[in-house]
Description:
heterodimer, A: alpha+beta, Butyryl-CoA Dehydrogenase, subunit A, domain 2, Butyryl-CoA Dehydrogenase, subunit A, domain 3, 3 domains, 4-stranded mixed sheet, 4-stranded antiparallel sheet, 11 helices, 10 strands, about 15% strand, globular, B: alpha+beta, Butyryl-Coa Dehydrogenase, subunit A, domain 1, 3-stranded mixed sheet, 9 strands, about 50% helix, binds flavin-adenine dinucleotide
Amino acid sequence: MDFNVSADPAHVVEFRKEVGAWLAEQFAGHEHLRWSASWSTRENDEEYKFRRGLAEKLGAKGWLFPLYPKKYGGAELTVDHQMVLETELFKYGLNLSHTFYTLARIVAPVLIRWGSEEQKTEFLEPITRAKICVWQVLTEPHGGSDIANCQTKAIRDGNDYIVNGQKVMVGHHLPPDFLWTLVCTNPQGKRHENLAWLHIPASLAGITIQHMNLMMGIKNAVFFDNVRVPAKYLIGGENNGWKVASTHMELEHGGDGRIAVDPLIERVIDYCRKTRIDGKPIIEDPGVRDLIADMMIELNTLRRFNQLIYWRRFAKKPHPYGGPQQRYYQRMMRLRNGERLQAIMGADALVQDLSVHEVVDFEYAVRTGPGQLHGGGTLDTDRLIFARRLGLGRPTTEKAPETD
Amino acid sequence: MDLSLSETQEEFRKVAADFVKAEVPAHQMTQWYKNKQTFQPQLVKKAGEIGWLGMMLPEQYGGSEVSATDCAVVFEELGRGPVPGPLFTSGILAAQIIFEACAEEQRKILLPPLCKGESIVVPAITDKAAYWGQEAVETRLSKTASGYIMNGTKPFVFDAQAATSFLCAARTEEGKVVFLVIDAQSPGITITPHIGFLVSVAEVRFDKVAVPSSNLLGSSGASWTTLQAALDRALPVLCAYQVGASQEVFDITCEYTRTRVVFGQPIGRFQRVQDHCVDISIYLDQARWATYETLWRLDSGMPARAAVHEAKAIASEGYYQATNYAHMVWAGPGTDYGHPMMAHSVLAHTLYQYLGTPGQHKRLMMDSLFPRA
Lengths: 404, 373
Ligand SMILES: Cc1cc2nc3c(=O)[nH]c(=O)nc-3n(C[C@H](O)[C@H](O)[C@H](O)COP(=O)(O)OP(=O)(O)OC[C@H]3O[C@@H](n4cnc5c(N)ncnc54)[C@H](O)[C@@H]3O)c2cc1C
């Protein structure tokens, strides 16, 4: 066994130097944006512009999807190269799974799996090179968990679909180029067989977007009013939307693994070293030490879960419950860590510190606790899938949908 | 044994419930919390008229001389709002500190206007967020000919923006912790509301603020022990407020499980959703009965210090966890700042460490049960 993620084989030794030097150049003068990650809640323009710019530059080199064919915006490199990219990016708190506000991490593999050759040629490259921003648009107001009960209608009319309906809690504070959407093609049709997946240009007439002010930041309601969507934007074929959705959700639900580490603990330790009560730094307080130890253990556990999933993915060893396990654990851990932060630092953990560009601003970490439990499906959905993948109460275990 | 409320207490409860219905309807309350406009002067005025400010004080100071349990019954109902503003901070906590610390003359000056809601006295005790105790009092007093100059920053003062005066803890040149009241309009005071996942809290800076000696509470500024005596009566009332708030969270959440239909059935039929509600109910009931047992101890003249700390630990943790589990049921819609859940969530996070975290109160409970050498 070898847990080292940066033990480079000979053929990538030079590549690591190249990537390291290139990243240092990109971050020169922007060091304060280290760790600025992919979530929408900070709504910080400087951070957003820098990260989108960096993504485009990575994309231009094919480094966002290093394993993909060049014609799809990849670099035709090896998994070893990918590991180099991930570990070098991680020095800046980033990694390739980060969406850079583009959703590329999910959309690209789904297109590879379900797109026609024509669609791959037309749609993939702008996504894999991070030229455009896609929103995932699934949830409807009457109940997000049951997305198969989709009420947004797309009725075929010649070479177009006419789309009508409403989605909620999607996207972020900046406008999208495309809406990656599940729609119902036949309200009378059989469940799971009456759905279609559309990649809808956001500029089409009849689309209205309205901000929603949520705990985690800006999200949006999207209204479709007789939107005419050309059929070339149908992904995965007529009435095959549920299968496309399954691939999409598996990717969203942590099924692709990660080799990055949450930087939260570094900042907690720093705070506890600097904060003194009665002359003594609180890191010497036994109660505080216990709390930090609990945080560390859970963050380390999550790192190991992520690494295992990542390894299995490239070693092609199926790990059916890896995704839901990682996701459920991560969310409950974040909830517990929010409380631990307050237990350690009281109200200091609740004040937004905009001088911190990192998403590990304590206030963010606390607020995300209860806020991040629902995005992309609730805790209960995680556990439901987890149980199916363990084969509980059924003769066989459910397989994870295909993602590669 | 009788664990029911008395007839008078039922009446108190009804008056408070009617008040919440009329003055703090959910849609209005949600906007106040969302826009951080939680100081609503009309609520303080009405509370003063009804007699909820300084409720436990003797009548000669403007109080109603009710028992701690009577007072808690009212505050439980106010927590259901949750009614914002300094009803607890000034009306209960400051009132009790002044009562404990002062002799007749000062009580007569400070308490009657407080009980009418004409003055709002807001406690500003510790200077460090990460600790609750006199070690965290760092604001300094330097002696002058006519009194003191005060310098320091109270980083988190609950209801600071409502204050007509602050009731501060500070350190003398000899290092002793004393208590004093300071007019909120005094030159040198800066109040900065916080931005973040908290509500009704501001930083209050005292920059070379001149304070006459007569503003010290009692003959020599009282002590941390005085504060503890006041907290014994005040904290259980705060606990009751959190119990009421948790009850409201529980009730609206259970109702939602009956009306929200997903996968063709009310979500309350899913065992996982039932489990979240069961968890809320446990946090709620453990807080409720720890609080009322403590109140009973106080009203019966029994030793209550450990019970007070226990109740504070359980009730703050309880409200916090009640909102967490409720969020699991409400999922997406409950995270909208236009939804009452968000008011509860932000308030529960704010009250979690107000006057000490659950962890700190657990330690204080152990210290009072098993004093350390
Ligand atoms: C921060 C955030 C970001 C989001 N981002 C996006 C986005 O980018 N795109 C997008 O499309 N959506 C997004 N969403 C919406 C999210 O996907 C939904 O909130 C989620 O799917 C749940 O739907 P709901 O909120 O309507 O809850 P409901 O479906 O109404 O669920 C209510 C309760 O019922 C439970 N429940 C439902 N069905 C079952 C069942 N079968 N078994 C057991 N329990 C069940 C749920 O677990 C929950 O407790 C986001 C939400 C949040 C909070």
